[in-house]
Prior knowledge:
Radius of gyration: 18 Å
Number of strands: 8
Distance between the termini: 43 Å
Helix content: 25-40%
Shape: globular
Structural class: alpha/beta
Oligomer: single chain
Number of helices: 10
Amino acid sequence: xxxxxxxxxxxxxxxxxxxxxxxxxxxxxxxxxxxxxxxxxxxxxxxxxxxxxxxxxxxxxxxxxxxxxxxxxxxxxxxxxxxxxxxxxxxxxxxxxxxxxxxxxxxxxxxxxxxxxxxxxxxxxxxxxxxxxxxxxxxxxxxxxxxxxxxxxxxxxxxxxxxxxxxxxxxxxxxxxxxxxxxxxxxxxxxxxxxxxxxxxxxxxxxxxxxxxxxxxxxxxxxxxxxxxxxxxxxxxxxxxxxxxxxxxxxxxxxxxxxxxxxxxxxxxxxxxxxxxxxxxxxxxxxxxxxxxxxxxxxxxxxxx
Length: 305
């Protein structure tokens, strides 16, 4: 079981409530909702990330009721009894478990990063539960082959390089976790991260600091364990997708190729928006991403009517 201790990181004007859900295999998941008024959207978050990466969704007037959960072994969710039950297919089943717990028959799904794999997997595995797909900074499968594109790394080498890097970091996870938890991740270090190229400046350093501190509560070896299992998820068949889709990509995103996202949008006849952003679009362009989400929700409701 996770040693996570819940902490209230909400700011004035934000709304967030946590609750527990039992997954299909008995794993206890820490779920959350913004309890806002509006159509329900199921968020499949970036791997190991948290609600605080989505400041626009935590406002009571955001216009959508968001429901989500923390990944297995992350942020108060239990590790499964079978440590290998952490594939993208397991995450898709967890999304359905959260919906069942709340009595949600179907809803649009939004995903960020590896969560994009999850929403597309859910769309082909549980098509009756998915009314629309909103993909932010992610591709519908084989994500590791999409990494490092802005750095000019040849596609044939990308997956080999990134998977081996994850394997090495998993082996070094213990000391790296200790270092990360003792490192003074203060305002100045957060600002440095925002100017590193991996993340871009947002003007909202306290929000970034809050999200990163929460992310670092997950042991690095477990995070890399999740990442390596996620790397096994191959592209889903986009010909099976018959709901509205929308893709929001970052030009400078080293973890999800904008070109691959543009191709996926074309194959699903979906909307495509590319921003001058890194992988952290929900923090760097929260209002623009949120406006695109609301449009996808409107499209989904029109098709379902």
